[in-house]
Design a protein that fits this description.
The protein is an alpha/beta fold and about 140 residues long. It is built from four helices and five strands.
């Protein structure tokens, strides 16, 4: 689902979630990407990360097939909404629905965009400090 490749101080965080899903985000993927970026930020030997979607798609947004399995409002609340609301006061924000989009890191992240980066995938790309796009990149605008 998510793996990290390290070459010296450069980390590549790879989202690899089913070619047919085009790296659409579900809660497990979102948690895994957040964990990868927290690990990157905490590692003193890491200087820059690259976020890349394997299989020709950066991220097709929220996984609507997953959402269709949530049979009722309570299931949607439990899997998607609970714990994601912005807190009051000085408490840190939880992860965003697409994963790390609310994280404030101390090091730069580069989006390597290939194929679609639509809806929440565009949000994910915009969260990154720099975006490098292949000719196949598509933001749906």
């Amino acid at each position: 689902m998510v793996r990290i490749e390290k070459q010296g101080a450069v980390w590549t965080v790879i989202h690899s979630r089913f070619a047919e899903a085009r790296n659409a985000m579900d809660p497990d993927s979102a948690e895994a990407i957040v964990a990868a970026f927290k690990e990157f930020d905490a590692d003193d030997s890491a200087s820059v990360a690259v976020l890349w979607g394997e299989g020709g798609a950066f991220c097709a947004g929220w996984d609507l097939k997953f959402a269709s399995t949530l049979s009722d409002r309570d299931a949607f609340q439990r899997h998607v909404v609970d714990g994601l609301a912005f807190p009051t006061g000085a408490n840190p924000a939880p992860r965003g629905p697409l994963g790390p989009t609310r994280l404030e890191l101390s090091k730069p992240v580069i989006a390597a965009v290939e194929g679609p980066a639509v809806a929440g995938g565009m949000e994910l790309a915009l969260w990154c400090d720099i975006r490098v796009m292949a000719e196949s990149a598509y933001f749906g605008v």
